[in-house]
Amino acid sequence: MPRTSLDSQRQILSCWWLLEMFNPQPMPKTTPLATRPENLQVIEWTSRAPLPWKSLPAPNKKDLVWRHEVYLGMYRLEETYEWLHRAFYDDNDAYDPRPPGHSACVGMVVDQDGRLVPGSAVLSSALWAVGRIANQVRSGEEIIITLDWMEKFAASQERLCKEFDTVEGRRRQVAGTREPLAQDPGSLEDLLSTAQRVCEISKLPDLATNRILIKSVQVSDRNEPELEFLNSLFLEDLGRVWRTIIDGAVPGSALEAYLTRPPDIKKTDRVDVMASPEVVTKGAGIDRLPLGRWPTNPAHCLALSQQFAVNQALDDLATTRGLMGVNGPPGTGKTTMLRDLLAGNVVERAGRLAGLTHPGQAFTGTEHCWQNPNGWNCSVPQLRPELTGFEMVVASANNAAVENVTNEIPARNAISDPWITRADYFAEIATCVLRGAAPAEPGSEDTPGSSAPTDAWGLVAARLGNKRNRNGFRSEFWFDKMIAGTKERDPETPKRMQTRLKEWAAGTVPVRNWKQAREDYRRAERRVRDLMEERRLAAERLSALPGKESQQRELRAKVKVLEENRDAVGAELQELLQHVNRVEEEVRDAAARREREMESKPGILETVFTLGRAVREWRTRFQTVADQLDEVEKRHRDFRTREQRLREHLAGIGREHVVCANQLNQVTDHLVELRAECVRDSSRFGAGYPGRGWVGDHREMRAPWLDPELDEARSDLFLAALQLHEDFLANTAQQMRDWLGAAVDVVGGQHPRKLESEKLLAAWQLFFLVVPVVSTTFASFGRMFGNLEAESLGWVLIDEAGQACPQQAAGAIWRARRAVVVGDPLQLPPVVTIPKKVQLDIAASCDVSADWLAPQVSVQSLADRVGKFGTTLGQGDRDMWVSAPLKVHRRCDDPMFSLCNQIAYNGIMVNGVHRGARESTWSGIPHSRWLDEPANINETHLQPNQIRRLQQVLEDLERRGIPYSDMIAISPFREVANALDALKRQYGRLRAGTIHTAQGREADIVFLVLGGAPDRPGAKAWAAQTVNLVNVAASRAKRRLYVIGDRAEWAKYNYFQQLSAVLD
């Protein structure tokens, strides 16, 4: 694929950076006085109230302090949108799904005594940019957004910090002290005025407000201050990547592929897996099967398309670098596939560890040193290169998606018999980590995807991301729980990693020697390799069968032809011999006549007496007889020649027939034996055997050669690999307790802010040797991995990628050697809050086309378009190339499955749903249907009659035995979703929200409450402009889908018309 120029890459990144300027973070929500926790307070402060650093009581714990985030000049985001609409005319009649909210002119951190933390002030990028646009509008100038805004904003940010220092310096001078002073109402007003002047909004009253929000939270006194809100969390990371490329560095294979321009994509290299299914069969073959497998039910192997994607990642991508897209429609097992990627990588690294005769050989001898913020000396070793590159980070724009992955896979119910009771990779510590997973702060925007499981089998994944999550993990992973008021470990709680390492180092807990550990692992590995070799030989036999059968058919046909030829030539020879016999008789007759004629030759006297006439007449007769003899002899010679040729030909045919007959006998014997072997193989490998019945849907349901015996051995090997990792820690515990402690400090953010990238990387690589997978949102990725450079992490696995704006993943993909992007562009697209005209003008200013702008494109669609293996899905008047599609759906009953398959996926999905328990319960539940409730209230999407109908059905279903926890109520519109959310107080564990919040979730019953103001048809048109909304709504429902809304009105619109048609 031709390389996209560095200039083009810079332009795309610049465009994305400018777009993110207009995407501020939502402000923290105020905490109600009645339900306010003791460690958190968020208030909108007024001058009549005391400042929090003056009024809040001291924390109960001595190592905790109050830290205050102060947001000056809070404004409504709607006001910035209004200015953007004025500057860039957009379609005012179109439905606008932009969420409401507030941001602020400036944010800053204040310590427990009310003193401004130097350098903590952050200027609002959105307000700074809108201020420039607003002033251009007011002065009648042409609206121009230019590339140099990046440098100009950085200069304004620097100016803000300097002017704040000046304001604070004047205060100290007036007070006659050199010590920092606590903020008071007057100083806050001065700082706000300064920030508004730097933002150039002082003359814009709708933007230049005096509202102040203060978030006060108790933190460890050792934590460095960090302002989590205000600007887009992608600005800094995009700027880092942009500057690296500006400096001439190559962006790395994955990001380079991600930024490939459409004209540089060679569509002729694409392979359509629907048109060429043999490519998938070969790609999922036994010779490409990873050694390791997730320990789930051995009878339930991966589907063909899943195994193809896993093999493509672990066989092709793992040996190189780059980007791979996997198209995962709902219910097709994306998480299942990711689990096998994890198992494959852990086993591969274990194989390399097992190659070390001494565990100390894992390190190069280089040791990286630094001092942490508390002044402690820290060091981590440099791992050998062959043990790195296995780091796995699950990232997503969807907080629930990343939590689901890293909360689910360590849980004991994520594995199956025979391992569910005996699998143990630091299980007690993993359980503590899950139970102690930091809950979302009151008032924050974090909404957990699911409650964390409480019983874990293995420390294979960690939910990280924001500072709170990382600190929570660090605490539960590393530090023992102490008896209150003492320094003694609570014996009722599990020993954490620090203590485990200390005990191994001290010899108080036995350590299996490294030689034995390696032998145990190698034994498990040999078993897998032996089983795979058996199946490889069986695959050779099966693949040889068609060739042998074809060879037999060809030989049979050839023998038949030879026999037919032999018979024909023999018949021809017999006929010829009859002619020969007749000719020979004719020769004898002619010779006899010649002799008789010779004997009748006139003598001398007769010749004399006839004056020579008798001789002349005799000569004439004799010549005639001689000529007849010559002719007959010639014919005889010709027949003999033909006879000779026919005999030779017949002999040749005979010889060839003997050879072919012998070959046929040999091939037939071999084929009989081969067929018998294949029959034995089929019996031996059961459903995993891809024989003649492995076609159609059955072929899609399971990958070839995966039978319970092999899959059980592969799962055993994965657990053996984890055991080898644990044995490695035990055998290096003497130094590992200090090294890993330093690495855990880095994970928790307890390291110098400007720690060198090579030290940071060495710490993370050591941590990933213990915990193979971590998760984070894109928003936290840049802060978590900070100064790590291009291609520093082995794997970035992006989930729900169809929901993410393309710029959100740039920093993650840049840091990845390999990026696997999993999602579905036919589910909900990215949410964009900027008017389309603004996006297009920003893109034009960077000489970038709309091909790089959300919601037209997403992280998924950018990854899909460069995928080699995929297929084309028709969507209206456009075709969409999707990479490595997963095709077996295991979630929804009909009509939901058939509807989604028809309207979104061109019928390529296969229904793999198999119901078992509780079928008797569902036989009495009404089938999916449309509950018609006309909309009759204008100016609001909320229709109370539809809410009442929902309540009636909820109560009826609960009486029929369906708990509220098995139901989700969703709507396209926020105001309807708010009403649904309010029902949770009445209906217990009912889940509710917008369709956007439902993506990634599922329930037995889904209610789609449409709402819709009769006088706002643009809202319905917005909902129906693509297949995405109906596809997501329908594919959440496993058993029943109930649509509540105005059927006559909604059925006028595309996709809702098809939805109405399949429902009673």
Mind explaining what this structure looks like?
Helix content is 48%, strand content 13%. With 1064 residues, it is of the alpha/beta class. The strands form six sheets. Strands 7-14-13-10-12-11 form a six-stranded parallel sheet, with helices on both faces. Strand 8 and strand 9 form a beta hairpin. The longest helix is centred in the middle third of the chain and has 86 residues. It is elongated and about 180 Å long. About 1% of the residues have low confidence.
What would a concise description of this structure say?
The chain is an alpha/beta fold.
Give short descriptive properties of this protein.
single chain, 35 helices, six-stranded parallel beta sheet, five-stranded antiparallel beta sheet, 1064 residues, 23 strands, elongated, 48% helix
